[in-house]
Design a protein that fits this description.
The chain has helices spanning about 1-5, 20, 35-45, 65-70, 75-90, 120-125, 125-140, 155-170, 190-205, 225-240, 285-295, 425-440; strands at about 10, 45-55, 100-105, 145-150, 175-180, 205-215, 245-250, 305, 310-315, 325-335, 340-345, 375-385, 390-400, 405-415. It has about 450 residues and is an alpha/beta fold. α8 (about 155-170) links the parallel β4 and β5 (about 175-180). α4 (about 65-70) crosses α5. Bound molecules: ligand G3I.
Length: about 450
């Protein structure tokens, strides 16, 4: 969470928004795993991408039986799809900026509609039209994407995707963009070829988002410096997107190498750890991160985050294992002149166990904003600051012009903040203590 809030400007759910995860029975919805994340992303000024409304792989368990029991299965499917879109897109209207409306309609290795897809099996291509029309009606402000996998790696599939987009546009379907997942486990992309592919989509008048990027280490392991080679390849991916104005975002499929789906996916689990992301399993920036940031920094249109300087005192452990010993942390936030700050948030500092919110909210004692001087805010927090070794503690904020403000400071403390394999060892006594306190209370 700390990485997400401090290093990224957009966030999405890996699984929690999928139909099968949201709906345990027809018409029954549970948003408990979704709402807090969307609130958090919004609070920190991150854009929210919605993933995904219709995907054959993670559809509800009950859907097949429900259709089998209906007198007209196609009609029942249309009805359930409309209710689903209305319920989910309607609930987050104005808050989820982009939706992957339909995910992976094409066969995995080819250009036709997937033969084993329940939705197209019932309705043919009409299911895509219906999904987009319903999503547009439920939130006319949302940008609606068709999201597909392996299209950048398989030329025939790419042509199939272009042809499908052309048919949808010709029928007046409110399609606004193509999501290219960017799971580069077949091969790393060639920069020029990828840029040409993105331009082909832009030529249709559509936006492009790279929606699920990861570049596994096994492609580079024979190189003298595999992480440098991975970084170079990441530079290609970012450069290709940034060179095409219609390519508006790059979403990584996971924040760090400790949490990649590739480690449990059948075809790639044999190579684990796949180490495909920008941060290592300890949340540290990899060469790939610096390559990506270099490309972003060289591009004026990349969404800018204003840097602030923060000072956290004391720098050493505020709290050793016993949570009762929490002390005061003083945070000074400085920025260059002209930063017009609307709000400063403390949540990106790590308080409490494993990055969880503090038991009682941090107290802002003295928020002293000064538009002219360099000091933007000064506050002290009663709480425990937890981190392993040399760790970045960060403060986020929002500027009045909508940009995000971000500043980090290196702190050295004893226990971990949602990262590191050592964590359970030190957290166990901490948690026991906590439980004992709860029992006493
Ligand atoms: O939620 C259950 C849990 O209750 C159960 O105990 C556990 C036991 O295996 O499974 C949990 O479900 C898992 C689910 O992720 C949530 O964690 C599934 O087994 C697991 O198969 C599922 O994997 C997800 C996969 O989509 C589904 O096929 C991956 O995390 C997710 O990264 C992946 O994401 C997809 C994109 O949505 C679309 N593009 C391809 C990408 C990779 O497949």
């Amino acid at each position: 969470i700390v990485l997400l809030l401090t290093e990224f400007t957009s966030g999405t759910h890996e699984n929690a928004l999928k139909w099968g995860e949201l709906s345990p029975a027809p018409g029954v919805y549970d948003f408990n795993d979704v709402d807090p994340t969307i609130d958090l992303l919004e609070e920190y000024g991150l854009r929210v991408r919605g993933h995904t409304l219709f995907w054959n792989m993670q559809r509800p368990d009950w859907l097949e039986d429900e259709l089998a029991a209906a007198p007209d299965s196609a009609d029942r499917l249309r009805e359930l799809m409309r209710v689903h879109v209305q319920t989910v897109v309607g609930r987050y209207a104005g808050r989820i900026e982009q939706w992957d409306v339909v995910n992976e309609p094409l066969e995995l290795g080819g250009e036709n509609l997937a033969p084993d897809n329940l939705f197209s099996g019932e309705l043919g291509e009409e299911y895509i039209d219906l999904a987009f029309a319903a999503a547009h009606a439920a939130d006319p402000t949302a940008q609606l994407f068709l999201n597909e996998t392996l299209a950048l790696s398989l030329p025939r599939k790419f042509e199939g995707l272009i042809a499908l987009a052309e048919r949808l546009l010709a029928r007046g379907v409110p399609l606004h963009g193509i999501g290219l997942q960017g799971h580069f486990f077949v091969d790393p992309p060639d920069r020029a070829t990828m840029q040409e592919q993105l331009e082909r989509i832009a030529d249709l008048g559509l936006l492009i988002e790279l929606t699920e990027v990861d570049l596994p280490y096994f492609h580079f392991q024979a190189q003298p410096d595999p992480f440098a080679a991975q970084a170079e390849s990441y530079g290609d991916v970012f450069a290709a997107c940034l060179a095409v104005p219609a390519c508006t975002g790059i979403t990584m499929w996971g924040t760090d190498d400790g949490n990649s789906w590739l480690d449990s996916f059948l075809l790639t689990s044999v190579f684990r750890p796949n180490r495909p992301l920008l941060f290592d399993a300890f949340g540290q920036r990899k060469p790939a991160y610096f390559a990506a940031v270099a490309e972003l920094a060289a591009t004026p249109r990349a969404r800018r985050v204003a840097d602030a300087e923060i000072d956290i005192e004391p720098r050493r452990a505020v709290n050793r294992i016993d949570p009762q010993s929490a002390g005061n942390v003083t945070v000074l936030v400085r920025g260059g002149a002209g930063l017009d700050v609307a709000a400063i948030d403390l949540g990106a500092l790590c308080f409490g166990p494993a990055g969880a919110p503090p038991e009682s909210p941090p107290i802002v004692r003295d928020l002293d904003r000064d538009g002219e001087a360099d000091l933007l805010a000064k506050f002290s927090i009663a709480g425990s600051l937890l981190a392993v070794g040399d760790t970045q503690a960060c403060v986020s904020g929002r500027m009045n012009d909508g940009r995000r403000l971000r500043g980090c400071d290196a702190v050295q403390t004893v226990i971990g903040c949602g990262m590191g394999v050592e964590l359970p060892l030190v957290l166990v006594p901490w948690m026991l203590l906590r439980r004992r306190r709860a029992i006493a209370a």
